[in-house]
Amino acid sequence: MKKFYIGTNWKMTKTLExxxxxxxxxxxxxxxxxxxxxxxxxxxxxxxxxPIKSEIEDSTIKIGAQNMHWEERGAYTGExxxxxxxEIGMDIIELGHSERxxxxxxxxxxxxxxxxxxxxxxxKPLICIGEKLDExxxxxxxxxxSKQIKLTLKGLNKEHLPHILLAYEPVWAIGENGIPADSAYxxxxxxxxxxxxxxxxxxxxxxxxxLYGGSVNLDNYLSYFEDKNVNGLFIGRAAWDMISFxxxxxxxxxxx
Length: 256
Ligand code: 13P
Description:
Elements: E1 4-9, H1 16-30, E2 38-43, H2 49-55, E3 62-65, H3 82-87, E4 92-95, H4 98-103, H5 108-120, E5 124-129, H6 133-137, H7 141-152, E6 165-168, H8 183-201, E7 210-213, H9 221-225, E8 232-235, H10 237-240, H11 242-255
Parallel strand pairs: 1-2, 1-8, 2-3, 3-4, 4-5, 5-6, 6-7, 7-8
Helix pairs in contact: 1-11, 7-8
The structure holds 1,3-dihydroxyacetonephosphate.
1,3-dihydroxyacetonephosphate binds near residues 97, 174 and 214.
């Protein structure tokens, strides 16, 4: 049995103090989980990474950053580099979230450079892809995702594939105004993403975990979890509250 991934992107929501309180609670929950079954990860904001990393040092919780530049050093005010994030022990680098694409003009080409940089620094890129509402309505979701996958994974070879994670996050399903996706639709899209990966990388393409994210909540998480095409959940709001996150983690754990 493969591990099921459950992680949360904190976005720009928690101060360090709030993040530490949250992490202490999460550690108590994680101690009750068998980590050969669930890979649990958190993605805090940059200023919290070092203290939160030391808070989880004696646990099996993995930690990642929400973004990074692709260069090791340089005149890029406001950016952080792979070298800096590797130095502080990051396991994962989240790349290409739809909010970064929408508000910070992040392109597939830039994401691709970051994917290579993360792998070169021995950190796992968690690459986010997803179609917009008009793309879904015009029935070009799969074409859109195929283009994103081909461009963001450009230049990778089969040796890289065991070190990447993919998150399917339809733009129309994310955040306060998001519409939760139907689980049959998610299952279909995950199947199509798998086919694209296998087309590109043959058998190794079948090994890449494909997580689902976008308005995952207490009412719908099981419908995604139970689908064999879904290898993990990447959660925002429903994981920021420990009561609901604990319920999601423990229920999934009990069913694995
Ligand atoms: P929500 O679960 O709040 O919709 O956010 C999901 C997300 O953006 C994870 O990266």
